[in-house]
Amino acid sequence: MKIFLTGAAGFVGYHVAERLLSQGHEVVGFDSLNDYYSVQLKKDRLGQLAPKPGFTFRQGDLSIRDDVDAIMAEHPDITHIVHLAAQAGVRYSLADPCAYITANMMGHVVLLEAARHLTGLRHIVYASSSSVYGLNETMPFRETDAVDRPGSFYAVTKRAGELTAHAYAHLYGLRQTGLRFFTAYGPWGRPDMAYYKFARAITAGKPLTLYAGEGLARDFTYIDDIVSGVVAALAHEPEKGVSRVFNLGSDSPTPVSRLVALLESELGCKAVIEAKRRPLSDVEATWSSHEEITALTGWRPVVSLEEGVRRFVEWFRAYEPQEADAGSVTDFDCAAG
Ligand SMILES: NC(=O)c1ccc[n+]([C@@H]2O[C@H](COP(=O)([O-])OP(=O)(O)OC[C@H]3O[C@@H](n4cnc5c(N)ncnc54)[C@H](O)[C@@H]3O)[C@@H](O)[C@H]2O)c1
């Protein structure tokens, strides 16, 4: 396979690239390296990928047609696309909703416009999100549930991505699979996400914000499981003109307070917790049914939260001091005692 991978410098994209390269595939990585979080972290991920045979990378913006056309012209023999580039983050979509239109809606359409002219293209797998379930209260979330009550503008743009994929499958015969990721976490993760922020706060002895409420839970899914799901979905292409979506989550909703306890235990420091009211954009709980993707591909999550947090903290301890040198607040003296 020759795979065009958008968001290759991102958290999930980096791990997907590693797996595909280790399987002997060619990966053409593409990313704008936007500064939503540490650009250095994105460069460091790319630094890990750069020496691997089969990897090429170009910096560019998916919402700019010339950028996408240029890379497609260089690689007209692309057979698969894994589209992960996005303006991520639920809460930031309150601060800058227009960034989500540009990256997630415009970027997706520009990609599909280019994709429909690739003669050897077999299949597009793209990232959707558990956030499309929005205010849905039926648990676990199933692909057959209505997804018309988004709780954030981020969710609006991820749902728009699914609808866009459907139209392009119908109009141009593209085979497409959307994957609704449920709270991916792990090494080389995103510093804007709660588990990473908690780890930084705990080690620095600074207060971390925990939203009040017994029911606050997330279906945390370890990055290697997410990657296995992406790769499994990619290998199971649908019929021509079919667009489908699958949940990709661990089917194991866990109180966020349990995540904090695991981080405390792995980091050996006590958290200073500040309880606040949950913002309207954050849903109370997520819980994925993964029956559909399991039935198609045999995929199952295999990494427990305990093991996943252990692996994250091991990486965090090794990587984060370099970030600290670059101005991050983290040190490893358990400032909170
Ligand atoms: N990590 C999660 O828990 C999670 C959950 C649900 C959905 N998702 C989705 O999975 C995908 C990957 O998420 P992630 O956690 O790796 O996020 P990430 O922010 O680490 O990676 C996204 C990458 O896309 C790049 N990008 C943004 N706009 C771009 C543009 N216009 N052109 C080119 N590149 C652009 C960014 O620079 C970044 O490196 C995203 O689509 C995200 O919405 C992630």
From TrEMBL:
| NAD-dependent epimerase/dehydratase domain residues | 3-249
Q: Which UniProt keyword terms apply here?
A: NAD
Entry keyword annotation includes Acyltransferase: no
Q: Does the keyword Cell membrane apply?
A: no
The protein's matches in PANTHER family, at most eight in alphabetical order, are given as:
EPIMERASE-RELATED (PTHR43574)
Q: What is this protein called?
A: NAD-dependent epimerase
**Organism of derivation:** Asaia siamensis
Upper lineage: Bacteria, Pseudomonadati, Pseudomonadota, Alphaproteobacteria, Acetobacterales
